[in-house]
Amino acid sequence: MQMRFSYQAPTAGKHEVGIAGDFTGWKIFALQEMGDKYLISFNLEPGLYRYKYIVDGVWQPDPSHFQRETDPFGGENSLVRVAPDAKALSWAEAVASAAQEGLRSLINITRYAMKSLELRFKWPAALAEQVELLIEGEELPLRVVGKIGGECYWHIDLELEDAVPVQIAVYHQGKRLYLGASVQEESAGEYWYLDYEDYPLFELPDWVAQGTIYQIFMDRFCNGDARLNQDFSESYYRDLRTPPAPGTYLQANQEYYHFIPDWYEVAPLKQSQFLPEGKPDWWCFYGGDIAGVRSKLNYLAELGVNILYFNPLWEAKSVHKYDAADFEQVDPHFGTAVDLKSLVKEAQARGMRVILDVAFNHSGESFWAFKDCVEKGEASEYWNWYDWHKWPLPQPLPIDFKPREYYQCWWGIKDMPDLNYDLARRHPEENYIRHIEEAEVNSALVEHILEAAAWWIEYIGMDGFRLDVPEEVPYWFWELFRKRIKRIKPDAWLVGEIWHNASAWISPLYFDSVMNYAYFNSPVLEYFIHLLADKAEFQKRILEGLAVYPTRVARAMMNLLGSHDTQRIYSLAKGDIARVKQAIFFQMSFIGTPHIYYGDEIALPGTRDPDNRRPFNWRWQESAEAVDLREYYRRLIALRQAQPLLVEGEFEFVELGEGVLAYRRYLGEESLYCVINRGEDECRLQAREILFSEGGVRQEDECVVLAAGALCIYFNHRGHRERRDLTANQHE
């Protein structure tokens, strides 16, 4: 079986990435750089394999894969199991398995409102043409929502007043199977009782699915008040303001913070004049601020976005602000807390929601509690807020300072010391503890963080949080966090930054949804931008995502094409705007909440961090390509907001021939069809009402002809039948 291994670096810069494992004889094979990812594929026989990544010479387990074992050297190997191709079950075998396991093993129920449920049922794809729910004398059809391997996931939404007797009926080639309290063929057997009170309430904010997200990296969006420009007067910049002597470079690990007065001078973000060739400037500021965002609210409203997502706004030394100096202070070079509160109110008055990026895995080294520890050692009342290995720290820090010898820190970065939630365990062991009863809770730290989070919701007025590296914080903390925030604002949105299957974190206990890297960003980029995946592989991975997450969750997933952690989509596509437009088209017409990284709408380029965090180009109207792309975004956002099917509709792929990607969004008998002609020949459709088109599209009687590369969305009225081959997509 072909297995693709991928590594996403959590830190900026170019990396040397290799892999070694059982399948390489523990010889190192180099991964190929592809945008932000490093990729390699192996053809592996069924079995269990051990492996490690080698990143810049350091051997480590796969950070996105949590099946591991201890290696003989005190570290960990990652484990991957390659299963043999599943043997297709016969009807008799499937019936026998269902009878042995029972209906509960085949269904999953999510309760979204007091008496509202989604019921999901999984069954071998080749063994059902129709599935129904028998309930109170009615036969209600289930719809296929996704597929994993050889199993289809069927679903239905229900409103219940009381506990009701139910059965699932499966129809296949003239045969019928009834599953309830018993499993019986041909005639109904015992019913099973479905009671909404048996399931925890998992309410998601309704406004998320209706939204379009716009992410703002504050320092690089707009400078609205030059009086706030960095003067580096804060104590944490002391000794970090000296440039190297002319003709020399900064020493290793030496920082030089400075301000760039020319907003459009972006060359330092690719090559610093203070560092050797290939090293960018990570320490420069441009002066974006709260006043700048307020001055551009009309721009954002005209674009159509209605959820603003800010990278961290609290006080911090860095330009990115993930190294907090104080969890409850707005950075003074952005403005004041009153300024931010006013901005949030003004945005909300325009119908926009506002969410904030927060990082509670670590603080900054300039954080007041950490500074107290550095000064006082074990005498500090905050000493146990961090995992210390030895003290005192050398003063001044040497060039070859190794922070992990002194304290635990995020990926070995001295600026980001990890917070210590569980007094009985160190990182990373504490992260895997689910139940608070199993932890020795660091109560003072936990309460401080919860109070800080509450301040952003209660005082500033934020509508939710994007939670940075949440899998590096104990599960039980997120349970406390959710309870606190939802008690203050029940419709607050909690979205986690998780790059892989996040089903362990999405629940009534933890998060509403996540940044959809695994089942949106990755397959979309590999299919539309990198051209690594064919249509079958793309559809397979999209359907897996729809099978993994409940439908209401899927509608609230943050579907992103790029972010501050990735290269920009325009640069990944090497300026091929047609490929970019196809990816955007799918994003805006797929299930989930579209996300725009500031500047992507005007084709802002950007490679590795910090080049992907360029100042916004407010001269964008001078570029015909930028004007065209922004209008393309605006039209699609407006269409999505005007057409409920694009928000609430079910999703299925439609087969319209090789080279054509087609799918429909539907409710009942109403359907919108979305078609992208990725082939070299024209594509002819029976379309009655075109809602959106791009590229060579012409009308011929009741047909529409799409040239190669063209795309469109069209509406078919009730009773009109479109040629579809569902067998090829759902029951193969």
List the helices and strands and how they pair.
Blueprint: E1 2-8, E2 17-21, E3 29-30, E4 32-34, E5 37-43, E6 47-55, E7 58-60, E8 68-70, E9 76-82, H1 91-101, E10 107-113, E11 116-124, E12 130-135, E13 138-141, E14 143-148, E15 151-159, E16 164-172, E17 175-179, E18 183-185, E19 192-194, H2 206-209, E20 213-216, E21 258-259, E22 284-285, H3 290-295, H4 297-303, E23 307-310, H5 337-349, E24 353-358, H6 368-376, H7 443-460, E25 464-467, H8 475-488, E26 493-496, E27 513-514, H9 517-529, H10 535-548, H11 551-555, E28 558-560, H12 569-572, H13 577-589, E29 593-597, H14 624-642, H15 645-648, E30 650-654, E31 660-667, E32 670-677, E33 683-686, E34 689-694, E35 697-700, E36 703-706, E37 711-716, H16 726-730
Parallel strand pairs: 20-23, 20-29, 21-22, 23-24, 24-25, 25-26, 26-27, 28-29
Antiparallel strand pairs: 1-5, 2-3, 2-6, 4-5, 6-7, 6-9, 8-9, 10-11, 11-15, 12-13, 12-16, 14-15, 16-17, 16-19, 17-18, 30-31, 31-32, 32-37, 33-36, 34-37, 35-36
Helix pairs in contact: 7-8, 9-10, 9-13, 13-14
> In order across it, which strands form the biggest sheet?
27-26-25-24-23-20-29-28
Tally of alpha and pi helices = 16
- Uncertain spans: 718-732
Q: Hey, roughly how much beta strand do the residues contain?
A: 25-35%
**Distance separating the two termini:** 19 Å
Helix content: 10-25%
Mean pLDDT: 93
For the CA atoms, what is the radius of gyration?
27 Å
* Major sheet summary line: 8 strands, parallel
Number of strands: 37
Class from helix and strand fractions: alpha+beta
Net shape: globular
